[in-house]
Amino acid sequence: VGSALHAMLMEHLRKFVVSVAGGLVLAKDVSRYREAIGAFGIAALSDKFAVLQDISNIFLVQPAALKSLLDEGPLSRLDRATLQAFVQMREDSRSSGLAKQFGA
Question: How much of the chain, in percent, has pLDDT values that exceed 70?
């Protein structure tokens, strides 16, 4: 059930443009999901939701800090196409030059 929820959330996030305000709501929601999933004590599942938390941070960090977020920590294990898809869903991806910088 936890893996299915994770997959559903990952797919859902690829469908909507997210503003900074939306990113804040998303980060809070994902934090609560992580808390609930952590109660099961399944490390692999907790790791998946930790990555989801970092994905929510894609929508919060300043454009200058994005490369560091993507290249370090859990997100560095994801393929570039997946990361590009999330960067593209930032509300400011085109206006800030992120779409060009990350090939999104």
Answer: 95
**Which residue type occupies 82?**
T
**C-beta pairs of 71-78 under 8 Å, 24+ apart in sequence:** 74/47, 74/50, 75/51, 77/51, 78/51
DSSP assignment of 31-100: HHHHHHHHTTT-HHHHHHHHHHHHHHHHTTS-HHHHHHHHHSGGGGGS-HHHHHHHHHTBTTTTTTTHHH
The string of DSSP codes covering 30-44 is HHHHHHHHHTTT-HH
Give tens-digit pLDDT for 44-72: 999 999 999 999 999 999 999 999 999 98
Q: What is the pTM of this model?
A: 0.88
